[in-house]
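Blackboard transcription, Thursday session:
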Amino acid sequence: MEENQGVWVFIEVNEGEIEGVSLELLGAGRKLADKLEVPLSGVMLGEGIMPLANEVIYAGADQVYVVDHPVLKNYRTESFMKGVCTLAEKYKPEIFLYGATPNGKDLASAVATDLSTGLTADTTMLDVDVDKRLLEASRPAFGGNIMATILCKKHRPQMATVRPKVMKALEADRSRKGVIIEEELELREEDMRTKVLKIVKDVTKKASLSEAHVIVAGGKGLGDIQGFQLIHELAEVIGASVGGTRDVVEAGWLKHEQQVGQTGETVTPKIYFAIGISGAIQHVEGMKNSELIIAINKDPNAPIFDVATYGIVGDALEIVPKLIHQFKELSKEKGGEMSYA
Amino acid sequence: MHIVVCVKQVPDTKIIKINPKTNTLDRRSAPAILNPYDAHAVQEAVKIKNKTGGTISVLSMGPPQAVAVIKKSVEIGADQGFLISDRAFAGADTLATSYALSKALEKISKDKPIDLVICGKHAIDGDTGQVGPGIARRLDIPPITNVIEVSEVNKEEKYVHIKRKQINGYEVIQSQLPCLLTVEKEINDIEYAPLPNMINAARYEPIIWSVNDLEDVDKTQLGLKGSPTIVGKMFSPPKLEGGKRLEGTADEQVGQLMEVLLERKDLLKLKTANS
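(Written on the board underneath:)
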């Protein structure tokens, strides 16, 4: 176990671009590596990805392992896990982080099984105990009512998937120097049992929530699906996207893809309205990094007020119609439509 | 076609309470239910069986009372169910859980070879999504996670076409059978159970296996002993100080809020009739 050294980050590449979460993890990984006084490495697999290697260095890594192979053109569990396991067995990192994206979670779960090691899912806080060289990966547990710190004492590498948009990427430093290590891997298409037939991008969905500048989100405090209409109405008037809590989605008031929180989308809009939302950890984890948070809730002790920039203690059913009215008046005054577009 | 669905009994996390003094879960505060994602997994197996014919088995690991989720699965349309239940399995993390379940699946497949394994995307108490892919690795079959549609099942040529959810959009994957799928909720709607299923379920008694009923088991890989991860500590997240409360009557509050919002002129755009 002592031979295991260094912090690794899996670099996810989609359509010739490094995923944001991978850059965020290089930022977080840099801190861990500095504390442990070990190098930070990126691990990148794909086809034609060599030109991206320097970006990994600029984002904070000391070195990048690159496997460039036609079989790795699209993500597949079988080919990627073979590549990642081979590298991990050869170079023996002590910590290995992945973005908690569909591919990152899929890959990490498979790799952990083959390496017989521990994996913490959907981490939102990372630290290390330097003396014991232990990764402290914390995440909301039990549906997000409480935080749990997960440790992996006897197995290496210690692995975790980390929620996107929780850690901070470093500013790209184009003067940073590092080592690029190209690895050969024996992979044959005829050994593969799966094929990616088609990739379909849904542009509208992305624009609707995780990319939105302004989000109006509602919770159970709106009473019923009729009350929830106010959320749609306000969003429409100010040109915002609509989100909601897990409860609201499970009650069928809103679609799954509009759920904000630990098991839904993580969002970082400029303005986030939390209306009739009590602020369970599960929800707060998905929106706390929004720039300006406005909370409207009847209960003065609701935890949502702890993360809100501005809070209104009051009945959403009374406050929101007034807000809608104000915006409509404003638009009339200006002779057009005022909206956060 | 032999489809095996892995299911889990979970506390309903929507209502569960945490003891604020000990930071532990008060399991009595929440009813035990069939993990919602697993219900969709069983439903998908029923949809496939309706087209291809065959048998649906369900498999669960848990205490004896977990037979309830197997009976619930029979109500949705499963034909038979297995529960592995033993103190040796207790305290398992995802690695030890996938090991135990894969041993049970090996035993099930000896009797009737398995063509397809379906799991829910994750369980709502653990929220990890790691057991499904883990089982697939141990059985050496391809895992396909985040499945939103099973568009084709060809049992003669032994392949499936799957729509898999991606960061923005989806991909269509062809996989050889057998393989393992983990399904999202949007894959189907749970149908009302027909009366004969409900009667079957009420009468049904799942097969229960202890650790000694399974074959070639390395006991050091089971339960707490076989789990590399442990919970170091539980804590309430750091309290944030919170911001400013807007005071006054509802109208005054809304007035102040409008001032705050209009400060973000960089975001506000005015669309006029002639622009």
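Lecturer's comment: Chain B touches chain A through 88 residues (CB under 8 Å).
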